[in-house]
C-alpha cells in the first residue's frame, strides 16, 4: 500500500508541470548561490527531484555520467542544470539558463527553459532581422546568411537564452553550427515548437534525441516564415 501511495504522489504533477517547476526552482537556486559552483548545485537538486518524482525514468545530463540503460528506456529526462556556465560566472550577465526536457518513445513531450537572471523588459521593435549566434563560436557562414536576408548577428551565451530571445520576439532566428549536445537543445527545441516556431538542423533535417552519442552538429530555430529562407 505504501508503494502505491508513493507512486500516486509522484504522478500528481504532470510531466509539463514538473518540467516547469524544476526549471524555475533550479533557476532560483542558482541565483541564490551565484557565483558559486552552480553546475554542481543545480545537478544535485535536479537529480534528487527527478529521483523523487519520476523514480522509474532515465536521465541524460551534461553534469552526470551517461547511463547506457537510457537507450532501452521509454522515458528519458534530458537536462542541462546550468546552460551557459561561462556567462553565469560573469557578473551582470543574464544569458544563462536551465534546461529540463522529457523524451518519450522517440519524441520530446515536455520541456521548460528558465532564464532567471533576465529582467522583464518591454519588447523592442527592430527594422532588421536579428539572428542570435554563439558569442564564442558563431558559425563561419552566419555573416553571409545575415547579409542575404538583410539581417544582423546578435552574439549571446546560453542556447536556452538564445532560443527564448526568439520565443519572446526579441530575435527572429537562432543559428548554430560546430556542434552541441542533446541537453543543449532538447528543452529549447520543445519550448520553441510549443510557441509555434520552426526547429530543425540547419539543412532542415529533423532533430533526434536519446541517441547513443548525444552530439548534435547544428541547430536552427526561427520564425516559421523564415524556415524556407534559412534552411
Brief description of this entry?
This protein is α/β, with parallel strands linked by helices and 231 residues long. It contains eight helices and nine strands. Mg(2+) binds at residues 62, 80, 82-83, 184.
Kindly describe this structure.
There is one protein chain. By secondary structure, this protein is of the alpha/beta class. It folds into two domains: 2-114, Fructose-1,6-Bisphosphatase, subunit A, domain 1 (Fructose-1,6-Bisphosphatase, Chain A, domain 1); 129-230, D-Maltodextrin-Binding Protein, domain 2 (3-Layer(aba) Sandwich), CATH 3.40.190. 36% of the residues lie in helices and 26% in strands. The chain contains eight helices and nine strands. The protein has helices spanning 2-10, 15-33, 38-53, 85-89, 142-148, 159-168, 182-194, 227-230, and strands at 58-61, 75-83, 97-104, 107-114, 129-134, 151-156, 173-181, 198-200, 215-222. The strands form two sheets. Strands 6-5-7-9-8 form a five-stranded mixed sheet, sandwiched between helices. A four-stranded mixed sheet has the order 1-2-3-4, sandwiched between helices. It is globular and about 50 Å long. It starts with a helix and ends with a helix. 40% of the residues are buried. The model has no long low-confidence stretch (mean pLDDT 94).
Amino acid at each position: 500500500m505504501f508503494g502505491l501511495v508513493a507512486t500516486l504522489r509522484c504522478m500528481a504533477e504532470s510531466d509539463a508541470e514538473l518540467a516547469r517547476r524544476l526549471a524555475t526552482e533550479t533557476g532560483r537556486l542558482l541565483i541564490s548561490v551565484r557565483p558559486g559552483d552552480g553546475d554542481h548545485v543545480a545537478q544535485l537538486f535536479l537529480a534528487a527531484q527527478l529521483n523523487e518524482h519520476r523514480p522509474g525514468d532515465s536521465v541524460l545530463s551534461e553534469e552526470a555520467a551517461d547511463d547506457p540503460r537510457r537507450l532501452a528506456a521509454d522515458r528519458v529526462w534530458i537536462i542541462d542544470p546550468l546552460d551557459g556556465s561561462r556567462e553565469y560566472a560573469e557578473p551582470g550577465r543574464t544569458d544563462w539558463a536551465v534546461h529540463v526536457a522529457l523524451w518519450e518513445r522517440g519524441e520530446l513531450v515536455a520541456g521548460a527553459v528558465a532564464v532567471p537572471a533576465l529582467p522583464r523588459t518591454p519588447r523592442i521593435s527592430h527594422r532588421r532581422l536579428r539572428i542570435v549566434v554563439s558569442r564564442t563560436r558563431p558559425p563561419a557562414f552566419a555573416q553571409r546568411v545575415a547579409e542575404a536576408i538583410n539581417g544582423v548577428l546578435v552574439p549571446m551565451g546560453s542556447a536556452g537564452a538564445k532560443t527564448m530571445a526568439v520565443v519572446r520576439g526579441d530575435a527572429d532566428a537562432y543559428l548554430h553550427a560546430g556542434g552541441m549536445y542533446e541537453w543543449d537543445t532538447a528543452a529549447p527545441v520543445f519550448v520553441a515548437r510549443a510557441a509555434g516556431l520552426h526547429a530543425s538542423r540547419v539543412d532542415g533535417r529533423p532533430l533526434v534525441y536519446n541517441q547513443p552519442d548525444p552530439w548534435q552538429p547544428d541547430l536552427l530555430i526561427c520564425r516559421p516564415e523564415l524556415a524556407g529562407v534559412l534552411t
